[in-house]
Amino acid sequence: xxxxxxLGRTSDQRRAMLRAMVTFLLExxxxxxxxxxxxxxxAMTEKMITLGKTPxxxxxxxxxxxxxxxxxxxxxxxxxxxxxxxxxxxxTKVIKIGPRRGDAxxxxxxxxx
Length: 113
Known about the structure:
- The protein is of the alpha+beta class.
- It has a single domain, classed as CATH 3.90.1030.10.
- It has helices spanning about 10-30, 35-55, 55-65, 70-85, and strands spanning about 30-35, 90-100, 105-110.
- It has a three-stranded antiparallel beta sheet.
- It is globular.
């Protein structure tokens, strides 16, 4: 697991949250969240896209074990990864958008480049 941010959750809750967020990002191309979560999501999304670049059975199984929706995994191999075939990393970007109104947590938008 990349990074060492605990995000105020137990390890299983953290893993479930990151899986859901990575799936949502791959599905919609954009998420608004806190900066620390965005950085964790960024690391895992980059890994998934890199796996998707070579459509071997082992890579498909690794992606399916992490991404929570089969349709998103299919989209990753068919549409998203081929777009980045010539690119080595840097498939996502995190844009800071200032503090959240309720608790002043630093917010960010993470999106596919």
